[in-house]
Amino acid sequence: MMRHFSQVASKLRYGSIKFDFKNLKEILPYHIQNIKNRSANANAQRTVDLWELYKTQLHDLEMLRKKRNLHSEKKPLSEDEKAEHKKLARVHKQEVATQEANLEKLENELMEEALKIPNLTHPDVPIGDQPHQLALHGKIPKFDFKIKDHLELGALHNLFDFDSAAKITNSKFVYLKNEAALIELGLINWAMQNVVKKGFTPITTPDICKQEIASGCGFQPRDPSGQMYNLADNKLCLIGTAEISIAGMFAETVINADKLPMKYAGFSHCFRMEAGRGQVSKGLYRLHQFSKVEMFAFTTPEESDKTHEEMLSIEIELLNSLKLPFRVLDMPSTDLGASAYRKYDIEIWMPSREDWGEVTSTSNCRDYQALRLNSFYLDKSGEKKHVHTVNGTACAVPRVLLGLLEHGQKKDGTIELPECLHKYVGFSHISPLNKA
């Protein structure tokens, strides 16, 4: 980890992560209330107190270094003076080393606290734990036969193998087989093609990133209670979403304003440690590994809200084409991730659960990630400013697959697929035939 003891005036640099402590202190009461509204595990006052202590200790270190340097410039004349000079030089060296170690320890503590502080919150976000329903699309279906859940349908058509996956990994991993494997690939291509038509650049991303990139995006890979898989060297982790790897592309970068907005349709595998328990999380709904097409954009501050609404409209269009009933939610303050300024979720109706389940999410992160990743743009006047980042799910394969199976089932066991997918998967329905 690179140390930056001399760069603490208003922003402290921690590896590739920056944090603006001056701004935090200036609007401290707002942050304290915002943390309370979001039920976040953060302490803004303690962070500011640690920053003030850090500045004091940094000043003390600089004085010790000055004292050491002045001593080293002296030229002793006699042998006795030389001996005393060397003795004092060793003392000064040890004082500086001790203070540097203390400062490094304090810096780690400071940044651990700072990175817990969530983004500010859009004034229209519902405060508390209840979302605001913005729209309802489609009708909840009524079946004239006893329906099967997606696991029963998977067994009927030999679509999943959880048991074999558990043998080579652990629970909550799956082999998708037969038509399910083709539907996964078809959904990825369908989502990518449709989002690219909207002006997004297609991209496939690494499934591994540096921990400091994930931290800069608002994820906490070092937190033992978190959701990210750390690799053995403790410097890399598996990504939970392509949002992380795309955001990291322009860390430590200045973008020309005429290139903004830069919009990407990114495919990656996603890895989540916490896969949930109980009936709600069974089967495909929560997995440790899954495929996803993610929308991501770098914008100017003036364009981020507009881009956020654009991503929501794309999600709505995609789900409407799949003929799945869904509702659009403006998510409440307690449900916002650390990086989200505002978040919309879309939940489809899941027949076997007789309840709604999330399939997409889109968040405007404003400059939260750019501040931490040091991502800038040059405006028309040549001034350097932080970009805004926006992300949204185009297609999280397992949950969409779950919905397609349950909504498409017929009394004879056949599963009909929506017309928009036929050319991408190569078939229009799944027949209950014997499959190896």
TrEMBL record:
Coiled-coil stretches noted in the UniProt entry, renumbered to this chain: 89-116
Keyword match Ligase: yes
Binding site for L-serine: T241, R272, E294, N391
Any GO MF annotation of the entry: serine-tRNA ligase activity
PROSITE patterns with a match to the protein in the record: AA_TRNA_LIGASE_II
EC number from the UniProt entry: 6.1.1.11
Any one biological process term the GO annotation gives: seryl-tRNA aminoacylation
Top-level taxon in the UniProt lineage: Eukaryota
Keywords: Aminoacyl-tRNA synthetase, ATP-binding, Coiled coil, Ligase, Nucleotide-binding, Protein biosynthesis
Descriptive protein name: serine--tRNA ligase
